[in-house]
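Exercise 7. Given the encoded structure of a 349-residue chain, write a plausible sequence.
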């Protein structure tokens, strides 16, 4: 009996060590954050999706008139929120979308259909033209004309290399230039865990110019570039590096133009980055660096950083919530998306 109990204890200990090893890689050890103002993300209003298996509002966007939010979901569509009475309606869809074939079922989950139907990740409107730009994980960079409908694929390969994991997108509202990321040249979204586990460093940061329909690779050889946001002064881009748990700053103007540097070392694995309208950025954290599956049911959902990369505010909430984006609107409302939940959450500061 003693031997059996001893073996069980050893197995439990080994399991815990394996869990810790997975949680601590590949990010460096977390550094404590000093006393920082904290928002309770569990106190939120939900904008629920219709359909028991529909989920995954990854990114959140508002159009130039302030309507929305808009969000891409697991069956390949982009939906628009029309208020509590009408709820969500279809705004856009990519080439190859078919309602019957792309609707998930218990025998055909979204992970099976998304390579055909598409998976909209980053969303950004260009306010001047009314165009919506979509970073679709499988179809590439797409654009939808004002009013919605079928999206047009603008870019699905760059320099002869296909986009395998198109992820984040942002738009310079003055020039109309579109900046976007391809997280890996080796793995698709359905293999995203492999990008982190292998330390894949084949990601690319790119620019699309709608004036001449040209694409430029700004930087290659990046480790898991994910979300992207342009700074308030339009001098640089902030790119989330998911595996390394960092933010990278890439200069698009000034004496440092064409160079990059690390802006922040984050306390978790970042997904999307959004400008907060105050010179800083909200960074959604999918998981903390040293998060354990047991213990208190609370973890970091997101952090707000200032222009220098310092954490100045945090949002915490239950571990069941794994945010992919946090977007701030007028009045301090925070709209939070997640690939795992069937709703967009609205949190008030």
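Solution.
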């Amino acid at each position: 009996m003693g031997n059996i109990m001893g073996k069980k204890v050893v197995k439990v200990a080994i399991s815990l060590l394996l869990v810790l090893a997975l949680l601590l890689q590949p990010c460096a050890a977390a550094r404590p954050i000093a006393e920082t103002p904290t928002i309770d993300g569990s106190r939120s209003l939900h904008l629920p999706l219709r359909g028991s298996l529909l989920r995954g509002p990854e990114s959140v966007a508002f159009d130039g008139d302030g309507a929305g939010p808009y969000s891409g979901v697991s069956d390949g569509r982009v939906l628009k929120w029309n208020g509590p009475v009408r709820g969500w309606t279809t705004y856009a869809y990519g080439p190859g979308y078919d309602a019957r074939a792309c609707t998930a079922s218990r025998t055909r989950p979204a992970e099976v259909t998304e390579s055909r139907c598409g998976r909209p990740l980053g969303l950004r409107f260009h306010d001047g033209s009314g165009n919506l730009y979509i970073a679709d994980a499988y179809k590439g960079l797409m654009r939808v004309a004002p009013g919605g409908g079928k999206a047009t694929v603008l870019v699905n390969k760059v320099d002869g290399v296909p986009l395998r994991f198109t992820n984040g997108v942002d738009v310079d509202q003055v020039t109309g230039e579109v900046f976007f990321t391809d997280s890996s040249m080796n793995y698709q979204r359905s293999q995203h865990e492999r990008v982190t586990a292998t330390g894949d460093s084949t990601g690319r940061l790119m620019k699309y110019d709608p004036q001449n329909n040209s694409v430029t690779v700004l930087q290659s050889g990046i480790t898991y570039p994910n979300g992207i946001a342009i700074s308030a002064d339009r001098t640089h881009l902030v790119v989330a590096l998911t595996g390394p748990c960092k933010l990278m700053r890439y200069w698009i103007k000034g004496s440092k133009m064409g160079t990059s540097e690390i802006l922040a070392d984050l306390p978790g694995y970042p997904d999307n980055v959004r400008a907060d309208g105050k010179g800083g950025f909200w960074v959604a954290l999918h998981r903390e660096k040293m998060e354990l599956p047991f213990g208190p049911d609370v973890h970091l959902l997101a952090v707000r950083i200032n222009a220098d990369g310092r954490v100045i505010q945090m949002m915490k909430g239950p571990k069941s919530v794994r945010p992919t984006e946090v977007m701030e609107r007028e009045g301090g409302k925070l709209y939070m998306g997640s690939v795992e939940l069937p709703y967009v959450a609205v949190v008030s500061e």
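Remark. The first strand starts at residue 38 and ends at 40. Students should compare their own answers with the one above.
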